[in-house]
Task: structure prediction
Amino acid sequence: MPDTKPRTMFDKVWDAHVVEQLPDGTCVLYIDRHLVHEVTSPQAFEGLRMAGRKVRRPEGTIAVVDHNIPTNIDRTKPITEEESRIQCETLEANVAAFGVPYIPVTDIRQGIVHVIGPEQGLSLPGFTIVCGDSHTSTHGAMGALAFGIGTSEVEHVLATQTLLQKPAKNMLVRVDGTPGPGVTAKDIVLAIIGKIGTAGGTGHVIEFAGEAIRGLDMAGRLTVCNRSIEAGARAGMIAPDDTTFAYIKGRPYAPKGEAFDQAVAYWRGLAADEGAQYDKIVVLDAAEIAPQVTWGTNPEAVLPITGVVPNPADEADEGKRAQLQRMVEYMGLTPGQKLTDLKVDVVFIGSCTNSRIEDMRAAAAVAKGRKVAAGVQALVVPGSGLVKKQAEDEGLDVIFRDAGFEWRDAGCSMCLGMNPDKLTTGQRSASTSNRNFEGRQGPGGRTHLCSPAMAAAAAVTGHLADVREIV
Amino acid sequence: MQAFTTLTGVAAPLPLANVDTDKIIPARFLKTIKRSGLGVHLFDTLRYDADGKERADFVLNTEPYRHAEILIAHENFGCGSSREHAPWALLDFGIRCVIAPDFADIFHTNCFKNGILPVALPREICDLLIEDAKMGGNARVTVDLAREVVVRPNGEEIPFKIDPFRKHLMLNGLDDIGQTLQHAPAIDTFEGREKSEKPWMPEITSV
Ligand code: SF4
Result:
């Protein structure tokens, strides 16, 4: 179908993957890359088995364990927690039975699925990428259409290499200008979510653009797209440019030599056409963004670190007031309290949002020559075995250890309470992860989301702190 | 998948916005390799206290809502993770229909794959239905998928809209993988064309 209308990047990637369109507009959409992990795949493989189906395209699929795996044990030994062990063993059995490529836990390349995709060159511009995990939106930073799916859809992709989908709407989030000192990709995306809300992107694919986004390195872009889902969007994308191509070049699964040049020529055509139409446009000025921290129990409950806990009584809408009241109570806060007065018990630096080498460096820069405050447990969990090695080669582990941080092995760790790293009831954390829902980091845990530098600042001061006043 | 045609049952009021998937089922219960048995953990933190005892003030712990088949909530229901354990837990508890002003995308899709009908109705209507639901066991709500109407206890019919393709699958309890496999020749053609047009496209041949 020749289409002369100017198209967005989402339109282009979508159009290039439509196998067939059904009469009601539902499309059979081809999937280039399917990333599989242990939590959302067992029932999918079981479904295949019961229906006598095969994996259609193992060479487009890769599996890894990340959610369950403890980050402080000898990985050559089995996991002691029985259910976690069974889930990991089930994945190993399934990938063997169905011939799916698998990165084992003892492999240095093992890590959080959303870290290793880009790191290994598995996630490429123009691709459709799916995984049974909502933060698959991360890979959109490569200029891919990447989104999370449920287990039934995992099974669907395994069996057919396609999904049944209807196109999303287009949304443009443009961040103009340059951010001030101490303001990172995490602060930018937290500010975006604060502005548009947790449902602001529902039904849309967000394209992040503007000077502040183009100025980010790949780690920062991955952080921004990671959190598209927290704005309710189906996916987030950033147009691939020279920063993207330089990042991809030489990665293990990326095209090589002449194939790479051919690929780049194709990738350059992916950016939105001049005059492409968006259903929604939001504009922010990076210069107005201060380091951000969440105070409540959903990602839109976010404020500049200079702010104070809101007073639910100021909210006119009854439903919202009740929700704010619940947040204030759950989080153990007093309206009007300065955010910088909140003492933390735990600091978690890691997760698919912020566990790349650049994040490790940013946190180490704050930790260097300082000490973790008394009574604070601080964890640094690299996103992959390779990030860990690189950090060690740069001596970052020594900086962290000297400062009193724990230096862990790769995994999801305290991002979600399903492995041994958990908050206990009432504990308050500064975390670089992506969700601050009630109980997300463990039952009764209280999460404040922030950037790696801000988390490190909280660790060394013992309370939420404005990193700009420390470095 | 179980077909969904008409459902008449107890509706439970849950007037909360942004009910996230960690609320529907916390991550620590995702370690199962089965789809069944998650109902006891549905809304775990709202439903049980720290000692695992039922909280008397949570709607699903009270009669007649222990037998609810319909749940009525506020905006952005199901936001958060892609875990299909959320609809599995709802289904295992006995809930076949969720009515809310809007739903998070992935959760919305996951519902259809499991024979749970997500019905989007404006907030004012949800509030009306919540008032109906508060009347308890005498107030049964009917959801008729074929006619795309919700019938209030007073007989008033409220129309809703459902994507025709999904409606077809739901009404007939069809497996969508089976549907897609009917397009296998088109998928073959697509793959063949990709191979010739994008010879640079890498494959994962070894790890
Ligand atoms: S780090 Fe957290 S958000 Fe990312 S994949 Fe793991 S559990 Fe999910």
Q: What stands out?
A: The longest helix of chain B spans residues 184-197. Chain B touches chain A through 62 residues (CB under 8 Å). The pocket of iron/sulfur cluster is lined by residues A 66-67, 112, 114, 133, 135, 351-352, 412, 415-416, 433-434 (CB under 6 Å).
